[in-house]
Amino acid sequence: MEKITINQKILSKNDLNAMHLRNKFATNKTLVINMMSSPGSGKTSFLEKVLVRLKDKYNIAVIEGDLQTENDKQRIEAIGVRAIQIQTGGACHLEASEIDKKCQELGYENLDLLIIENVGNLVCPAEYDLGQDINIVMLSVTEGDDKPLKYPTIFFNSDIFILNKIDLLPYVDFSVEKALENARTIKNNLDIFQISCRNDEGLDNLQAFIETKILAKKRCS
Amino acid sequence: MEKITINQKILSKNDLNAMHLRNKFATNKTLVINMMSSPGSGKTSFLEKVLVRLKDKYNIAVIEGDLQTENDKQRIEAIGVRAIQIQTGGACHLEASEIDKKCQELGYENLDLLIIENVGNLVCPAEYDLGQDINIVMLSVTEGDDKPLKYPTIFFNSDIFILNKIDLLPYVDFSVEKALENARTIKNNLDIFQISCRNDEGLDNLQAFIETKILAKKRCS
User: Fold this and answer.
1) CB atoms B123 and A90 under 8 Å
2) What is the largest CA-CA distance in chain A?
3) Is A35 helix (H, G, I), strand (E, B) or coil?
């Protein structure tokens, strides 16, 4: 078997900020999810679909990270969920200090769920802790089943792997079996969900999973 | 209209290396193309398709950039084209010094066409000059027509925009018109090609374009 090397950087300043951030989220019992993927894998479409199911039950906010534009913030607001945009300019990832600043604007209190949609990038965001409880890596079936092996750090640093756009499987050369095997080669205890935001396949399970996590966080002392 | 800010960094050490590299390519009359896109947009599939048409007419080599694996190098070699892999470990882009090192291994002389397949990343590679003649940005129709506005630096720094996987247009919500308009908002003189590596649509035009550029470089003194 091919050897896959995973490098872990020491990012002390961001790690320290993330630690403080994690403490604040713990105090407020806010579940924090950091979503990472390539551009166009469907992070915002997924949020539109799942948050519309959760928004009347929980107090939710979304932080949108993009190089430019406020498109994603507007899409989230259009479904009636609070959103705040970070425009990074040229920067390829979000950092804990930016999240802290935006959370002060949002208000830390009474937030059940905070979702951070990171900059579309399968490389750099993986190495920056944002104080999250759950890292999600999303891959769409149009991107190729080899990607977990080619971008191992982000799969290794994630808790959940969402395989998106499974409605397109008949039209692309993509082996689900191989993709999952490759992902498990990098991290064998990844929680894996297969979904389609076009026909809602798999969304019930994922919604239930997120709700379980929100409630578990509430019970934490 | 929304204001799009494009930041340009000063990367003096890499710029200096790229300048030397560009001089070497000029001396040897080698056309150099740097291909950039998100992971899974289809860079390697495109190279497989187009290089098989060119390999008997020109002396070609490919430098493959990936965080891990030699998969892409093996795919290029399988069609009978020389390929050399750069495994970046965790690094999110290639730099000119790495290209120089690999070109010394390949031999600078008698190379008509060098293709650099950059790390799959729509952010960071855009800011690193590799001594190329042509920067290509590739986007597939599954990634969304808003991407040129959200990742403006890479579109601004490119000469050619390849819209790939147009065979999937019937199955996705993607407006070609909007994508091209967005790209031209960022850079109005982009050369644009629409292709499918599944049914070969658009490949004749792109092949002809590349051959014209190879021959033009040969005529440069």
Assistant:
1) yes
2) 49
3) strand
- Residue B12 banded pLDDT, cuts 50, 70, 90: confident
DSSP letter, residue A187 = -
B157 touches chain A (CB under 8 A): no
Nearest CA in chain A to B121: A121
pLDDT tier for residue A88 given thresholds of 50, 70 and 90: very high
Tell whether A123 is within 8 A of chain B (Cβ).
yes
Q: What is the 3-state secondary structure (H, E, C) of A46-91?
A: HHHHHHHHHCCCCCEEEEEEECCCCHHHHHHHHCCCEEEEEECCCC
| Inter-chain Cβ pairs, chain A and chain B, closer than 8 A | 135
In which element (H, E) is residue A182 found?
A: helix A176-186
CATH superfamily name and code, A12-215? P-loop containing nucleotide triphosphate hydrolases (3.40.50.300)
Question: What pLDDT score does A156 carry?
Answer: 97
Query: Chain A contacts of B89, Cβ < 8 Å?
Result: 5, 7
Dig out the tokens for B7 from the structure.
């930041």
Residue A42 and residue B117: Cα distance in Å, rounded? 24
Please state the pTM of the whole predicted model. Answer: 0.91
ipTM of the modeled complex: 0.87
B118 touches chain A (CB under 8 A): no
What are the chain A neighbours of B171 within 8 Å (beta carbons)?
167-168, 171
A220 pLDDT band (50/70/90 cuts)?
confident
Q: Which CATH number fits domain B13-204: 3.30.450.40, 3.80.30.20, 3.40.50.300, 1.20.1050.10?
A: 3.40.50.300
Q: Do the Cβ atoms of B120 and A39 come within 8 Å?
A: no
User: Above 60 in pLDDT, residue A189?
Assistant: yes
Backbone angles phi, psi at A137, to 5 degrees: -110, 130
Mean model confidence pLDDT for chain B? 95
Between the alpha carbon of residue A66 and those of residues A91, B40, B151, the distances in Å are: 9, 20, 8
Say whether B39 and A143 touch across the interface (CB within 8 A): yes
Residue pLDDT, tens place only, A137-176: 999 999 999 999 999 999 999 999 999 999 999 999 999 9
